[in-house]
Amino acid sequence: MLSILKKKRCCGQEDETQSDLERIILVGNPNVGKSVIFNHFSDSYAIVSNYPGTTVSISKGKGWIDGKEYEIIDTPGMYSLLPITEEERVSQSYLFDNDPFVYVHVVDAKNIQRMLPLTLQLIEAEVPLILVLNMMDEATERGIEINASRLEQQLGVPVICTTSIKGEGLDKLEEAISKYSFQHVDSKVVYSRGIEYAIESISSLIQDEYGISKRTLAQLLLQNDKVAFEAISQKGEDVDAIKKIIDGTEKEYNNPLNYVLTIERQAFVNDIVENVMTTGKRDVTLTEDVEKSSRTSLRERIDGLLIHPVTGIPILILVLYFGLYKFVGGFAAGTVVDYLEGTLFGEMINPWVIESFNAAVPYPAIQDLFVGEYGILTQAVTYAIALIMPLVGAFFIVFSIIEDTGYLPRLAMMIDRAFKKMGMSGRAVIPMVLGFGCSTMATMVTRTLETKRERIITSMLLSLAIPCSAQLGVILGILSFSGRALFIWAIVICLDLVLVGYLSSKVLPGASPSFFMEMPPLRLPKLSNVLIKTYSRMQWYFLEVLPLLVVASVLIWIGRLTGLFEIAVQLFSYPSQWIGLPAEAGFMFLFGFFRRDFGAAGMFDMYNAGLLSDINIVVAAITLTLFMPCIAQFMVTVKERGIKIALGMAAFIFPSAFAVGFVVNYVLTTFGVVL
Ligand SMILES: Nc1nc2c(ncn2[C@@H]2O[C@H](COP(=O)(O)OP(=O)(O)OP(=O)(O)O)[C@@H](O)[C@H]2O)c(=O)[nH]1
Ligand SMILES: [Mg+2]
Questions:
Q1: CA angle 655-661-666, nearest 5°?
Q2: Which atom of ligand 1 is least distant from the CA of 53?
Q3: Suppose 41 and one of 49, 63, 153, 628 were both cysteines; which one would form an S-S bond, judging by CB atoms 3.0 to 4.6 Å apart?
Q4: FeoB-type G domain: from which residue to which, for each copy (predicted)?
Q5: What pLDDT is stored for residue 18 in this prediction?
Q6: Averaged pLDDT score across all residues of the chain
Q7: 36 CB under 6 A from ligand 1?
């Protein structure tokens, strides 16, 4: 099964390399199964999950279809050619810049009424196109029947029915691709006179060639699309004349042109659907419809329980208790780490490695680099394999199961109101929860959020208060000595998160984001997907973490040879002492600078060595959780938000972590709290 993971580019790695092969580009709304189809055809793997917005950057792979090799490209979901969120923009830019063999537009067969507008837009764009009606199993289950050949006639492009998770219909898709040749198809939509006139006038002004038809480009311009304007300015078109036409058209209509175009296009889609959907209800699973729908089936009843706060919050607590506390904190951080770090590495592997290495290499400095206290083998490799791997692995398993059920969009809906108070919408739940796995990944997922303000607040809270899985595992493991200690840690972190979120929403200008999220059906997780996903995320994680741990070991080694390490530890020992910790805790924060999990590992060592009092443990756990984002996350924040915002965040987070640690230590010691 894992053999399909020949080459991994997942979890947000962007690949800009171009190949000479002909390209097949998968496009479509979010959560329709594009990545499942990508994984079937290509030698690469893209994460598949049951919520909209899983794929936020382009994934590329190669695949053979009927004896010919193609480059296969998976794109983030998009609702329309006019993007709102950043991940939609990533997909849109692909329409401008690429000249593929064919676009495979994947839609959810049970929701064609909502998805065909994009098909009509792609037809208008005059791009080579095959339409895939995926999730036929769920459509059939709901009594929906679609006459695919009639749809094919109406649209003038090939239409293939698939149930991609079972592999059904993919052979037909393969055949359609191998036989495909581009044929011009006329637009299926005729807009009202004013719009058609504007489209024609703008098209006649456009001189150059773009990746899309002039008709589509004109529509994007009419809707004031930023990228379309950049494209025509770069090519020296007559922007002023075009703007004049747009202004005139805007005045003719009472509503924004974006709205007018959408409504008019939808009318054509409704006619088509009327013609091709022979039986069954049209199950449009939009947020507001979920509440209205009658809760007859078991699935719908569970749905209701998850969304209603009275039952939803206890369910959330149960998920956290069993998923995080018992499985990640108890089983992985307790049993597995104790065995791996204490027994396997501590008593068996490392003593043997140290002895053998020292016997083979009789130079103390080199011995120190590889098998010393902070050595590459004795520290970096041990931390990575014995401590971080079980924690991250356990978290990713739990997380993959939760993701595949479709629980996260429900959680998002339930929590939306609380998140609004912090300037975010329920949508931000997904990057925030993903942050418990790895905030670096999660920071990229903030692309799925609608407004810049929401993206900034979410990245900030991710950097500030969301511990990553390894850190969380260690902290839960250590704090499990006392329920009270765990409670204080959780309350302080939550309060800090809410307070900073609330204040940021007051300080940052901009309107509150609206919450609009598709509600995918609840599904039973597929074991193979959970395993492949966990494996691929762990692989990605280790490619990131192990080199950094090795670099840290080497830097510490150089630092100790030159005396700089002592100075750095000394520097960090001051703030450590301010918050009541022993001076040695300085090295824990120094490690935390590299990676959050590395800092947590340092804390784990100090705890094992008996250097921390009960209050020290709580204060250290809080400060480390709130401490700097790790280097990788900082870099991603720079990339996504810009250097100024990233530095601003760091400048706030660093002192505030110690300030909170100071206050907690002060309160706990002054009131003599016993844990
Ligand atoms: N029942 C059923 N589920 C499917 C089918 N195809 C995909 N899925 C499920 O639909 C969900 C979404 O699949 P993805 O491949 O991640 O969808 P995507 O279009 O790549 O989504 P984004 O990356 O968010 O744009 C997953 O839970 C899949 O298991 C299908 O044919 N039938
Ligand atoms: Mg995807």
A1: 125
A2: 24
A3: 63
A4: 21-183
A5: 63
A6: 88
A7: yes
